[in-house]
Amino acid sequence: MYLVQDKGGAIALMLAALLFLGTWPAVLTLLERRGRLPQHTYLDYSITNLLAAVIIALTLGQIGDSTPEKPNFITQLGQDNWPSTLFAMSGGIVLSLGNLSTQYAWAYVGLSVTEVITSSITVVIGTTLNYFLDDRINRAEILFPGAACFLVAVCLGSAVHSSNAADNTKKLSGSSSNYTSKTCNSRDQEASKNLPDKDEPKDLEDGGLVSGSKINTEKAKVGTAEFLIQLENKRSIKFELFNIPKPMLPQWPDMLFLVIGSNTFLGLGIVFFAGICFSLFSPAFNLATNDQWHTLNQGVPHLVVYTAFFYFSSSCFIVGIGLNIYFLYKPVLGLPRSSFTAYLKDWKGRHWALLAGLLCGFGNGFQFMGGQAAGYAAADSVQIAFLLLLLSKGASVLEGVFDLVCYIGELRGWGCAMRIWRLNLLVMILATLLSSGAGKPSGEQPLSRIQIHKTTLALHDSAYIEASPRVLGLQGQNSEWVTLQYSHPSPSNDDWIGVFSPASFSSSICPPENPKESPPLLCTAPIKYQYANYTTSGYHKTGKGSLKLQLINQREDFSCALFSGGLSNPKLVAVSKKVTFANPKAPVYPRLAQGKLWNEMTVTWTSGYGINEAEPFVEWGARGDSQVRLPAGTLTFSRNSMCGAPARTVGWRDPGFIHTSFLKDLWPNKMYTYKLGHKLINGSYVWSRSYSFKASPYPGQDSLQQVVIFGDMGKAEADGSNEYNNFQPGSLNTTYQLIKDLKNIDIVLHIGDICYANGYISQWDQFTSQIEPIASALPYMIGRGNHERDWPGTGSFYQNTDSGGECGVLSETMFYVPAENRAKLWYSIDYGMFHFCRADIELMYSTDYGMFHFCIADTEHDWRPGTEQYGFIERCLSSVDRQKQPWLIFLAHRVLGYSSADFYGDEGTSEEPMGRESLQELWQKYKVDIAFFGHVHNYERTCPVYQSTCIRNGSNYYSGPFGATTHVVVGGGGASLADFTTVRARWSYYQDHDYGFVKLTAFNHSTLLLEYKRSGDGRVHDHFVISRDYRDVLGCAVDSCSRSTLAS
C-alpha cells in the first residue's frame, strides 16, 4: 500500500487535487448553461466518480505488502471495521447531497457566490472540527497559510462577483442604446410567441439538450447584452420564468434582471444546505481513518485511506444515482420531466459529464491522501483557498482549460488590473505553500535515499574493489581508516560505494516475505556510502578511483561494494573481500550518566558478548587506590521491538548488547578511573582501555561548576560519507569544540534529536563512537526528541513518523537516564548549585549537580495540566532548596516557551501548541531562571518574559530579584539550520543563525554566567550574567507569590 508520509508529498497531492477539484464544477456549470438537464449530468458524473475510487483502491491501495498495522485494500474489506465504514459512508452521503445541491445553487446565485459561501461554512465548521479531532496537532505550517489565503480569496471572490454583477447591470442598462424601441417591442412579441405556456407539459422523452427559446437564434457578439440574453435562453434551469403570464412579460433587459435576481433566497437556502454538507464529509472521513472516538474493537486496524475512500465513494454513488433517477420523473425547480430512457439517449455533453466525475473522484482521493499525511484541517484549508481562486468566474487556469470566455461573456469586461491581481495572488499562494517547509529541517536520513530493495546483479569480470588493511584494531583501536581501490569498465558519476556489515549481505539474512514472491537481492542498507568520484575527479573517464573511509568496531565484519545505477536503481558491480576488527566483540564506547543520587555515576557500553558468553563488569576505583570489580546488567532488543520501517526493515542491524553498571558512594569532586571488562566462559578476560572521570560535587557545594547544553546535534562522518543536502555539517565542529574544552566542562546535556538515525540502527554506534571522548569522561545526559520517539499509534503525543520506527527504544536502551520509568523520559538533576528540570515529553527526570537543579521534560508526551508529566514538572520545580541550589533550570526538546523560527511563524505562533500556556505559570511561580529548548536549529535568547511581555528588558547583566524566566533556544548542535521570521518579536533579544552550544558557569551561589559559543570558532557570541542573593530569590515577582489582600 502506497502511503504519503512527508509534507512535500502532501503538498504535491493537494496541488494535483486542487487542479481536479477546481475543474469539474466548471464542467457541470458549462453543461447546465448549454441546456443539459442536471439529472442527466449527475447520473453520468456519479458513475465515473465511483470508478475513480475503484481505480485508486485497486492500484495505490494494493501496492506493496499487506501488514497487520497497514493492511492492503482487499485485505481490509473482510475485517470487522463497520463503525469506521459507517463514518466513511456517512461522509459520502453528505458530500453527494452537497454536490447535488450546488448544481441548482450555481444556476440561482452563480458559481462565485456559491463557492464563497459554501467554502466559508466549510472553514468555520469543517476545518475547525478536523483541527480538534486531530487534537490540534495538524501540519499547521500548511493549515495556517491556507486559512490566511482563504480569507484573502473570500474577499477576492466577493469582489469578483460584485464586479461581474455591476458589469452585467451596466451592459443591460445600456442595451437601449443598442436596440431601438421598435426592435425591443418586436422581440417582446416574438418572445411571447415562442415561450411555452404555463400549463404546457414539460416532458423530455426524446433526449438531447433542453430546447430553449428560439428568440434571436443568430449568434450574438460575446460580451454584449444580446449574448447574456442568449446565454440565459440556453440554460436548462429556467427559474419561474415559465410561470409568468405572457401579457405580463417585461421587456428583455428587465426580464433578464428578473431572471438574475429572482429566487435569490431559495438559491441562498440551497447554498447554505450545501455548505453544511461540505463541512461534515471531511470530519466523517477523518473519523473513519483515525478512529478518534475509539469505536473499533481492540486489535482491529484503522481504515486505510483507500478503503475508507472506496466506502465513501460507494455511498456517494448510491445516493447520487437514487436521487437523480427520482428527479427524472419528479423534477424540481421548473425543470422538464424526463425518463431513464431519455437519459440513455442523451449523448450531447455526456463525455464532459463523465470527465467531471473522474476529475472529482481523483481530486477527492488525492485530497484525502494529502489529509492523511498533513492533517485533514490543513488539507481542507488549502483546497478551499485554491478553489475560491480557481472557481471564481474568470479563473486563469480554467480559462486556459475550457475557454470559459466563450460562454461567460461578462469576463471580457474585466479590467487588466483585476486579472493581474488574481494572477499575482495565485503565484503568492503557490510560493507560500511550496516553501512552507523550507525553514524546518526535514531530518532526512541520508541512507534512506538508497533503494536497496531494487538492487540487481551486474557483476563484471574486469570490475573490482579492494580494501586495505583487512584486519583492523591490532593496536586495540576502535576506529581505523581503510583505503579502497576500485575499477569499473563502464563508469559514471552515479557510481557509488557502500559499506555493509555484516559482510555477507545476501538474501539469506532477509526476513521471511511472501512465499509467492522472490526475496530481494539485498534487504539491508549499508552503514555508510560515498560516490566513487568523491576524491577522484576523473573517475567517470578512467573508471579507476580510490577512497579513504573510517570504520568503527561494530561487532561484525565488513565488505565494500561498488554499485552503478545511482542510489535509486542500484546495480551491484563488484564486492571486496571481508574486513574485520581483531576483536569485533570488544567492549566499546562507554557513556557516563548521573545516577539517581548525587554520589552515583552510571557507565553504559556496548559489546558483542551476550550473558551466555561472558560476564560483564567494570573495574574501577579512586585514582591511585586499589580497583574493585562491579557487575553490570545487560540489555538488548530485537527487530520485533521496532515499531515500523525502516527500523524494522532495511534499517535494522543487530544492536549487540548494552551493559550498565552503577558506581556508588562516590566522594565529591574526586577523580576515578575505570575500564570495561568481560570474563569469558573459558576464564579469559577481554578489556577496554582505561578511562577516568571526576565525581559530581555535593549538592549546594560552592565551587566553580560548568555545564554545556545543546540540542539537535546528530552524527556526522569524519570521512565525509552519508552527507545529504548539507545535513548536519556542524555536528563534528560541536563535538570537536567540546573535546577541546573538556577540562573546563563538568556535565553535558543533549536535549533531544540525538543522532538522527531515523530507523537506521547502525547509526547509533556511529554516534556513540563520535562522542566517546566526551561521554567517557563526563556525564552525558540526554533528553528525547521527535527523531527518537515519534511514531503513530505508540503513545507519542505527535503522531508522525520522525523516529523511523524506533519509537524510543534506542534512546531508552543506549543511554541511561535517572527516570523512574525509562519509557517516560522526564527527570531532574541536581548538580552542585544547579537544579535542572528536563521535560522529555516522555523522557522526564530531574538531577542535582552541585548548585544546579535540572528538570528534564519529555515533549513527545503530553505535558498539559492534569497529565502525569505536568505533575512531575511541578514536583520537580517545587522540590528544590534554593538556598543550596539557587540555579533552577528547565529543559525540553520542543519549544514550549518562545522561538522566532519561521516554521512557527508560518503557523501564526512561536511555540508548540499549548506549550507556555500550560507551563508559564509554573515557571513564574517557582522562579525558573532559564528554560532551554532545542528542535529549532538556531540560537535565540529572550528577555525575561512572562505572558509574551518582557518583565525586564533584555540585557547582558541582570541583578536583584527574579523578574521572569529567560528562554533560550539552543538547537544548533549540528543539524541543518532553521531560519528566523522576518518580523522580530519584542521578546526576542539575541538571534544567531549558526551552529553552537551554551555553557553555563556557576561561580558561586550568587553569580551565574551564560555563554553562547559558535561551533565553528569556539568564540563567545552572546552572554549574560545573573547576579543576586538568596533574599532576591525569596522576593515576590509577577504571579510568583500567593495573591493577598488587606483582609488576608
List the helices and strands and how they pair.
Layout: H1 7-21, H2 24-33, H3 38-59, H4 73-77, H5 82-109, H6 111-133, H7 140-173, H8 181-194, H9 225-234, H10 252-261, H11 264-290, H12 305-329, H13 340-345, H14 350-374, H15 376-391, H16 396-402, H17 416-434, E1 456-457, E2 464-468, E3 471-472, E4 479-487, E5 496-500, E6 528-531, H18 539-542, E7 544-552, E8 559-564, E9 571-575, E10 580-581, E11 588-594, E12 601-607, E13 614-622, E14 628-631, E15 633-635, E16 657-663, E17 671-680, E18 685-694, E19 705-710, H19 731-740, E20 747-751, H20 762-770, H21 772-775, E21 780-783, H22 786-789, H23 809-814, E22 826-840, E23 844-858, H24 868-878, E24 887-892, H25 902-905, H26 916-925, E25 930-933, E26 939-946, E27 949-950, E28 957-959, E29 966-970, E30 988-992, E31 996-1002, E32 1007-1014, E33 1020-1027, H27 1030-1034
Parallel strand pairs: 1-9, 3-10, 19-20, 20-21, 22-23, 22-24, 23-24, 24-25, 25-29, 28-33
Antiparallel strand pairs: 2-4, 4-7, 5-6, 5-8, 8-9, 11-12, 12-16, 13-14, 13-17, 15-16, 17-18, 19-31, 26-27, 26-29, 26-30, 31-32, 32-33
Helix pairs in contact: 1-14, 1-15, 2-14, 3-12, 3-14, 5-6, 5-11, 5-12, 6-7, 6-11, 6-15, 7-15, 7-17, 9-10, 12-14, 14-15
Low-confidence sequence ranges = 136-142, 179-202, 205-217, 239-262, 386-442, 838-843
Mean pLDDT: 80
- Measured as a percent range, the helix fraction is 25-40%
Strand tally is 33
Q: Per DSSP, what share of the residues sits in E-state strands of 2 or more residues?
A: 15-25%
So how many helices?
27
Q: Sum up the overall morphology in one term.
A: globular
Quaternary state of this entry equals: single chain
Biggest pleated sheet: 8 strands, mixed
What is the CA-atom radius of gyration, in angstroms? Answer: 35 Å
